[in-house]
Amino acid sequence: MGERTDGHEGPGGVRVPDSRLAAEATELVRDTTGDLVYDHSRRVFFFGSLLGRARGLSHDPELLYVAALFHDVGLGEPFHDSGRRFEVDSADEARRFLAARSVPEDSIRRVWTAIALHTTPGIPEFMEPEVALVTAGVEYDVLGFGFDELAADDRAAVVALHPRPAFKQRILRAFADGVGPKPETAFGNVKADVLAHYDPHFERGDFVRTILESPWPE
Predict the structure, then answer these.
(1) pLDDT (tens digit, 9 = 90+) per residue, 170-204?
(2) Least packed by Cβ within 10 Å: which of 116, 128, 166, 194?
(3) CA of 118: how far to CAs of 48, 63, 144, 212, 217, in Å?
(4) What is the pTM (predicted TM-score) of this model?
């Protein structure tokens, strides 16, 4: 893990919010996740912030930071038997964290939505900036979407602060391990692709068959 930049200028001039809320979120996520998820989540914040600047999207840095930090906590072992999509588990953890600190309900809703929709392409970009930028940061770090939209120096500075050793294979394995115990939650979303590659016993749900075999007679 690189040096923390909380309250100080970081990659590309992006500052991690210097607030008690941000500090407590950092401490909680750092203590409950490994380097893979923590470093990825911090990169999502930095990349999302830089993309927000490039796209002219004014946003609340504190809400973006909390949403980025919590967006993958639902992959952890405590949630493997929840029966819910990991995105919802992650969003609910963020909601509990914020509600316990009397954060306004509209702010909680933005964070919850940003996390819950971060693997649902084609929708977040049309919503509030915090929602759009969490997904943008995730897509940048995981999928490389818009790779050349950010300056190479800024990209390198983020990775120097939060390295990504063997990230592609490690994050795919984290997805497989987090969703594998509840494969039914992959129906209709991108994690079905992950399980199809990593679990030889996985049977992908078929949307067309589900309709045709429903109890409706016509």
Answers:
(1) 999 999 999 999 999 999 999 999 999 999 999 99
(2) 166
(3) 12, 14, 15, 30, 36
(4) 0.94
